[in-house]
Every structure is written in structure tokens, then in C-alpha cells.
Amino acid sequence: MSIRNRLYHDHVTLEEEQAERLSYSSENWYNVEVRPPKDEDLPATLDNFAAGIRELQTKWLKLRNASPTIAFEIRRHTPKKLQIQFSTPTKRLERKVRTQLSNQVPGVEFDEGVEGLPVGEESTAGGGFLTSGRRDWYPFRTDFDDPPVNSLVSTFHRHAMQNTSFVVQVLFKPVVGERIQRWLWKKQAYKQIQYLKKEKEQLWGSRSPTKREKRQADSIEAKAGNSRFHTSIRFAVIGADEYTKSRVKELAGAYNTYENPETGQYLDTVTVEALREQRILDFLQAVANRNYAGWGRKFQASLDELAAFVSLPSNSRENIQFAEP
């Protein structure tokens, strides 16, 4: 075992008080469980839904982003039951989630969702998150024949990792306000566009941009010129003990489907490791509270990219909660 492995923790064993705090959120959330229709054709991505729930709000002369944060979660508290839910900070936004999702997915049903993390005294808990492997102006894959979440749902089949509970969380918030930060992001994105489109100096002479470089420039320009969301993808892993890091990697593997071969963009995996166990507790509390809290290395996702991250499964796994026929 390396010195780093001896010194750094990737999970904690919870005391009763710690488990109680992680069992609920510090803020008031409206949680709605989503049950997709079974044996019906579902849209591969939820583009209309993502556009319909986007709310742009600012404060302080449009300098501060006051838009609401929404959470999309896939939970497997027990191997026999897989739950999909959205959580919103207001009742009005919860109604909008129900309405817009019903519009794009006829036959979908709803139930009351759940709070916090599925932990108890003596539970072990840890986790990790995904971040963009390249600068986030490079787009992820967005064209799918089937919902890309099917890959993650397949990982959660009821015979896999039976002693472990999971919460996969996608937080998203519209990019608005924050004029300086938005200006800097766009400036760097368009600088990359110019580089891709210009002639490249070589040892002998120069060459014109390749077709692939031109397509990359066009895709970056499309992303920079349209709506985007601050996005964070995080995993809470409960009960895996010394296999916590391995479980994080298994979940991350399901997200390889979002890799874009045209732009080279992919999702990179980070397991939360720390010298002090309190750091891991802080991460778990951020997941339970559904806030960024400096955890997750949020990246900017286009509306089309977000629509793929929050897709509903179409494969008929026994542990998925489907709508009644």
C-alpha cells in the first residue's frame, strides 16, 4: 500500500449524529419521483423539457445569478428498487417539472420523492464526481438513438453491487448574470474558435485547417452562442467500505457514452479523497443539501447536453419504478 493510500481516506464510517444530518437537506425541497411508461418509445433526450423548465433570474443589476438550482437524481437505496426524481426549490417549479415532462413524455406518472442520503449509524460513505475532460466549451455527445441514461441503469441492475446504496445527482442552474465570468468564458471560447479556423504554422510552411478542426470550431461556436447551464454530476456511495473508489469508477464508466469523438470531449472521474475525514463529510452534506458548495467542479453544458444528462430510461429493468399500464 502506498503512503498516499495510507494517509488519504476515500470513505468515512458515520456516527449517529452524522448519519442523522445526512438523512435530510438543510433547505426545503420539493421532490417528485418520475415513473416512465413501460414498453413505449421514449425520446432519447429531453430537449423540450429542459427548455421548458429553464428560469433566468438575476439580482444586483444583473450581476448575480439568482436562477433556481434543480436536481435530477437516480437513487438505488436497495437493489430491488431504482428511483428517478427531480427536486426543485419551489412548489411552482415542481408543477412546471410535472407539466413539461408530461408534455414531452405522455404517460409518465409521478409520486412523492425522498430526501437526504440513505445512511444510518455505522454506515460507510464516500463518493466522487465527474468533470469535463477538456475545456467545457468543447461539446459532449448529444445525438443518441436511445436514452443515454440506459447505460447507467444497466449498471444498477438488481444483482449488481448488492451491499451498496447509491445516489447519482445532476445539479443544473442556468448561466445568466455574472457578466465578467460570462465574458471571460466566451472570450476564451472564441479565441479557441479562431485558432481552429486559422492556418497552422509548421516547420516547413503552413497548412490550412482540417475539416475536423472546422467542425470543432462550428460546434464550439454553437455552444457559446446558445443557452447553457452550470452543471455538476456527483455520486454518493454508501456501504462500499474499501471498495468505494472502485464503485465510483464503475458508475463513471456508464458515462463514457457521452464522449464526443468529434470534439474529444469526455467526462473525467474524481474520487473524493482527503487527509481529514471532515472533507468527505462536507462533500456528502453538499450532495444531501443539493448545493454546489464548492464540490463537483461544475462545468457549462448546453441545453442539448443537459437534455441528454437528464434522460429517462427506456430499458425494462425489473428494479425500475414504471408507470402503471
Share in helix: 25-40%
Shape: globular
What is the chain-wise order of helices and strands?
A: HEHEHEEEEHEEHEHEEHEHEHEH
Mean pLDDT across every amino acid position = 91
End-to-end gap: 53 Å
DSSP strand count: 14
What share of residues are in beta strands? 15-25%
What does this structure look like?
The protein has about 325 residues and is α+β, with helices and mostly antiparallel strands. The chain has helices at about 5, 15-20, 45-50, 90-105, 150-155, 180-195, 210-225, 245-255, 275-290, 305-310; strands at about 10-15, 30-35, 60, 65, 70-80, 80-90, 110, 125-130, 165-175, 200, 205, 230-240, 265-270, 300. The strands form three sheets. Strands 1, 2, 5, 6, 7, 8, 9, 12, 13 and 14 form a ten-stranded antiparallel sheet that branches. Strands 3-4 form a two-stranded antiparallel sheet. A two-stranded antiparallel ribbon has the order 10-11. A hairpin with a 4-residue loop joins strand 3 and strand 4. Helix 6 (about 180-195) packs antiparallel against helix 7 (about 210-225). The model has no long low-confidence stretch (mean pLDDT about 90).
